[in-house]
Amino acid sequence: MSDKIYPPSKEFVAGAHVDADRYEDLYAASINDPEAFWAEHGKRVDWMKPFTKVKNVDFTFGNVSIKWFEDGTLNVAANCIDRHLETRGDQTAIIWEPDEPGDAARHITYRELHENVCKMSNVLKNLGVKKGDRVVIYLPMIPEAAYAMLACARIGAIHSIVFAGFSPDALGARINGCDARLVITADSAPRGGRMTKLKDNVNQALLHDVNDVKCLVVQRSGDQIAWRSEGDYWLHEELEKVDSDCPPEEMNAEDPLFILYTSGSTGQPKGVVHTQGGYLVWAAMTHELTFDYHRGDVFWCTADVGWVTGHSYIVYGPLANGATTLMFEGVPTYPDAGRFWAVCEKHKVNQFYTAPTAIRALMGQGNDFVEKYDLSDIKVLGTVGEPINPEAWNWYNEVVGKGNCPIVDTFWQTETGGHLITPLPGAIATKPGSATKPFIGVQPVVLETESGKEITTTEASGVLALKDSWPGQMRTVWGDHDRFQATYFQQYKGYYFTGDGCRRDADGYYWITGRVDDVINVSGHRMGTAEVESALVAHSKVAEAAVVGYPHDIKGQGIYAYVTLMTGEEPSDELRKELEAWVRAEIGPIAKPDLIQWAPGLPKTRSGKIMRRILRKIAENDYGSLGDTSTLADPSVVDDLIENRRNR
Ligand code: 6R9
Question: What is the ipTM of this complex?
């Protein structure tokens, strides 16, 4: 870790929304009197009926309840579109950059966005979607993904986006999980020059559907696709039947806006629920202040809308602020490793937000790919998804930012709706690898891992929790409030527990050290080891599997799977490939194990619990500190595993 410190330049500070003094004032005000503070800042969105109650929060385990602005009403789509029409109707809302650099980019103005979203809203209504219904969106990175989200918001339907890289099985589980009656997808879509057959995946996911789930299909590629016998509709045909008049539905601040499935340490992914008012205030405020967004700037977040980062920082935050947001269909390395920088130059991007894994991958391709392009419009660089190693930070700073652009390392989670710990670029000097200081209104605490006691000295090391609520916090797990409480409020009573380890240095800067639970972070994508394990054991030749993360140069963490075969099955390279393909098919390409180690036995306690701590150490090639193995039922399996690891 580096302790070099990088203050913003005087010029940057002079033009920034928030400088150091203002940050101190805002932060103090937000903590000393949250009611008054949020009564004021809640006004950054337009309310149909203004709220009179600001905050109503109980973090007590067994009684957890989180409400913000609870008696206000609003419409999120109207906030993201309609209210900008008068002042910036002809301004570009969305720049769409397609997968093929030779294909034309599209510029969609706020007026056009309004028309497209209203028409799509009417299509949804015609298909029977009503307020409170769930709609699954399984789309590539095309403008229709944003239209679909906003159309749901406009009519009060709850969207649940499933990343287009997920397999039919994973998609099916999510459709059932929230009992959706409509899926919005595309025929097929290019990504990095390769086609994904989305509609085919939907057909497979709905093969055993008993709910008559309808499917609305965007024509992206024009490829021939298979149609089910009924319930499938082309979007372009449905659009011909509707007009563009669709008044926004009046929603309560605490009505759900969306569900987004994310991985936890146990069981299947859970449906994180975000609501209308607090989420929008949070997405908009963090977007404006963390990136120091100014009117007219072009903002580019490279995430996929299938992840929370895409929800908050491609669609809701930027559009609520009347920004121009860039949406990119492709990947960083297609057609070559200069694509990100080519797009930055082409569209004169002012704020660029990506993940450490992409930075590391591009760093490995050399500086020529960056230096070919004019990146002088970039003012702020952001990262998200995992801790950024100082080498990657320095490269980002020097080679991409030419030492001129503050780097905002934003720590947050699907559950938090938006940034929690991040520098405000005009206010806080950065240290490579540290997410620095809390955002306004956020009260992080470091707890002793075992006792759960709050560490009150400035320097601290333990687990990261939050002492009080902020407007963007998730409200519940869809259909399972007990699971919500058990996951986040049980282990450390009175706090929201993030699942991350953390160190606070002498300057009060926070350094996130990674997950302390069985969640791994592969290329910035969150995955529960339990999910990969259950996919593996679903294979007929696998008796048992244990999955851990291990350090990976590009991905941050790789997936290391210990596999015990059924008696009579022999390990082979073929079987290894078969299992890799199996996991890809069960979950999706992002879950494919990087390393499979055949394990005749797994280290278990006498009560049968797999000792992952030991498996992690072996995967890390670190045998010196295996710790106490005396409680193992059969300590000799550890020697076997080490032997095998060394032989690889
Ligand atoms: C937004 C997002 C959340 C987990 C989180 C943590 C890790 C995210 C980070 C970071 C260190 C950062 N994480 N940002 N760790 N520094 N700047 O990524 O949401 O997919 O839910 O993942 O990602 O471990 O707990 P999500």
Answer: 1.00
